[in-house]
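Hi R.,

Quick one: here's the Glutamine--fructose-6-phosphate aminotransferase [isomerizing] sequence you asked about.
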Amino acid sequence: DAGAVELGGFPDYMSKEIHEQPAALRATLKDRLALDGTVSLDLAGQGLDLRGVERIVIAACGTAYHAGLVGKSVIERLARVPVEVAVASEYRYSEPVGDGKTLVIAVSQSGETIDTLAAVEAARGFGGRVLAVTNTRGSLITREADAVLLTHAGPEVAVASTKAFTTQVAVMQMFALELARVRGTLPEERLLELGRSLRLVPEKVEETLAALEGEYAERLAEAVEVFEDARCALFLGRGEAFPIALEGSLKMKEISYVPAEGYPAGEMKHGPIALVDERCPVVAVLGEGVVREKTLSNVDQTSARGANVICVARSDDADAKRLSRVVLPVPEAGGLIAPIVDSVPLQLLAYGVATSRGLNVDKPRNLAKSVTVE
Ligand code: G6P
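And here's the predicted structure, written out as tokens:
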């Protein structure tokens, strides 16, 4: 209930919720991620035994689907279990394949999305086990699931999801660590190290916000300006940065109405590059490791065709600086930190573009906070 949550000095709920992310992440990690990096989710205590899981399906809608895509990548990388991510409205009618060794993870901020509930029902049809990841205690989905992992984001009022998304990602990451431990796919010491990296996420998000609203505020303003007469936009990333690019493009179209496509950077040359000109900004999430270089070379191809490029990269990334008009900096982020931290500049960018156009960011046209009828 929007009326019950105070704005506390923020101009709107979206801005408030973006700034609540450090606290929301802290609350979500609390009691689940120990100082030494040990994860304890108490799934066995809820009757969900991970030992027999051979396959995972993540079903969700909208932003929660993007959190699911990050989940797939981290679960497969750490726990070596095949994961399929399905849009719930498709999954429910797909005559899904599965058995008692299939775990269905339903991700839903509200816990009331009709298609996600139906996906859970479809999984029941083949005897699958169900884990719900939701922000809403006592919601319908918690009653349909074998086990529940709550995100502790607090009430999210703005239609465009921010803190619910980043806490969903943190839960997926903790789940991947837990599953990797159960399956013994990585040495204990490596898992603890990754767990400890995740503990740093709240302060890294704080740092990112402070930098983009302090030292680098002009860069953010310049990125917003690039969008002033944009006809469309391309959001690019690879690996775990790809779902973050998708989520960035969803935020942009939801609240600013700029037609925006999220695409895997390497696939862009098979279509979307045809859109590129000076009025179609390219927003690239570089990420880390080998994907960074590959994304940079894709970005280079777009700037060669006149694109105004905005890169989410480290502030000291000389290549990013050379190839782009604006670098939106994120702090050094090893281990599991990058997807959450990389989300923040894209939230602020969409927010900046929408408010610069005088739009109501909390209640964009045609959209509902939760979709409870089909
Ligand atoms: C609506 C909201 C989105 C949300 C989606 C799924 O489309 O506008 O922000 O991601 O529903 O909602 P859920 O509550 O299931 O996460």
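The mean pLDDT is 96.

Cheers,
M.
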